[in-house]
Amino acid sequence: MQDFSTLLQTRPKLHLKWPETLHLSSLNPISQRSKSGRRRSNSKRKSSNSPDKIASLQTSFSTAESLRSLRRHKWSLFDLQYVVLAAFTLGCLWVIEARAPLLKTAAASGYVLLLLMPATRQFFLPSWPIWVYLLYFFSSRYIPTEVRPHIWVKVLPALENVLYGANLSNILSAHTHPILDLFAWLPYGIGHFLNPAVCSNLMFIFAAPRTLPVFAKSFGWLNIIGVTMALVFPCTPPWYENLYGLEPAHYGMPGNPAGLARVDALFGVDMYTTSFSTAPVPFGAFPSMHAASAVLHALFMSHCFPRFRPFFIFYVGWLWWATMYLGHHYAVDLVGGSLISAIIFFVARTRWLPHQQPDKSSRWEYDYVEIGEMRKAVDEEYGYGLGLLETQGADDSDVWSLGSSSGWDGSTIASGSSSPIPTTGDRYSSEAKSAGETELTDVVVR
By the 8 A CB rule, do 173 and 326 touch? Predict the structure, then answer.
């Protein structure tokens, strides 16, 4: 009886072993590896190959290899760009004076051969728009006068006064000085022609792989659009107003170097007088391709090297001042060209431009590449991280669609995480699920 009363007074003990430290993350059935893999799950594509593979260049000259790759190519609407480029090329060759037909055929055949060899295709396929632009600009002088549109003389000065209340170009060019001439000559007469090469080399070495092909295509198409607008909507620049007032212009009138003539006189050499006087498009004031190119370079370089963004902004402002000081463009021309560049860049960044990784100092340090603008899914935005709304992107690994300067393997490109995962999606999901179940089981058992 005493033992029974003692038993009732004794407080029962439940022998359960609780973990010494309980982390809330251990209760999440999704492992940490899985969560880190879903952080950027909506990036369009990702390459998780070895660094040497990603940064490598094609060395093969076998046309058969390119033909096999072309047969495997998955055609898309984006491939229409090559049809347009081919049409531009043939049209330009046809417009040029009908001399040396064998030379034209040999030039076209040689470029096709460059596109068929992998070692040369990786450079000449993404730069094809640039070569078409140069041919387009050169051949525009042979367009018959009877099919050319009317030259607009009063439109740009009127827009200048309506938008800004004054002719900014005439105000800035009213007072000249040899030092100001040199200061304007550096970005307009030197930087405009050197920047494409300088920026391309910097992007190739220090930016993420596949950045340079996107820049080359963007730069080429920008100039093709600019030349087309200048031919369809020809307008006179400020130097014409200073020389002829608002008198009607006609084709056959020579161009003019404007303020660059003072630079030639200063150095005693003919660097710009002859070239600008015989320019194929003397009435291509709108849009300003000097401003458009500078803005495109600044946007791409700011994307690759954001630390130097203030310098790129300063350079754009410097060139804007130089174009108006030298009397080559109105302010409205600068705005128009800059808007076109901004549109091209933001489209390229959203769909094709690789993300830069701050901890990488050169292309050879990249072990994976993410492409396209990242968009958070609704479940990630609200912190669930389940990836319920994820969509798989198309496999764009075909070198004919990318035009990359790097070697790519189609099996290594997929939509996915922000860190390289060598396993496939199904296997990785099963591993994450098993890891989460194991962690949860350990907590309950312990």
Answer: yes
Q: Residues 198, 308: contact at Cβ < 8 Å?
A: no
Residue 152: predicted pLDDT: 93
Identify the CA nearest to 127 among candidates 42, 27, 205, 214: 214
Rounded distance between C-alpha atoms, residue 110 and residue 332, angstroms: 41
Q: Write down the pTM of the prediction.
A: 0.74
pLDDT in tens, 338-384: 999 999 999 999 988 999 888 888 888 888 888 876 443 333 333 33
One-letter identity of residue 51: P
The DSSP output letter for 210 is T
Residues 6+ apart with CB under 8 A from 300: 199, 203, 211, 215, 218, 345
Q: What is the DSSP letter of 413?
A: E
What is the rounded average pLDDT of the residues 174-203? 93
Q: Comparing 387 with 304, which gets the higher pLDDT? A: 304
Distance CA 152, CA 164 (A): 20
Q: How far apart are the first and last CA of the chain?
A: 38
Query: Cα(192)–Cα(127) distance, rounded to whole angstroms?
Result: 18
Own/partner contacts of 229-233, CB < 8 Å, gap of 24 or more, are 229/286, 229/287, 230/281, 230/283, 230/284, 230/285, 230/286, 230/287, 231/140, 231/143, 231/148, 231/149, 231/281, 231/284, 232/149, 233/149, 233/152, 233/286
Q: How confident is the model at residue 94 (pLDDT cuts 50, 70, 90)?
A: confident
Q: Report which residue type is found at 341.
A: S
Domain positions in the chain: 54-351
CA dihedral defined by 382, 386, 387, 388, rounded to 10 degrees? -90
Q: Decide if 237 contacts 276 (C-beta within 8 A).
A: no
Average pLDDT, the chain: 77
Could you report the per-residue pLDDT of 406-416, keeping only the tens digit for each? 444 333 333 33
What SS3 state is found at 406? coil
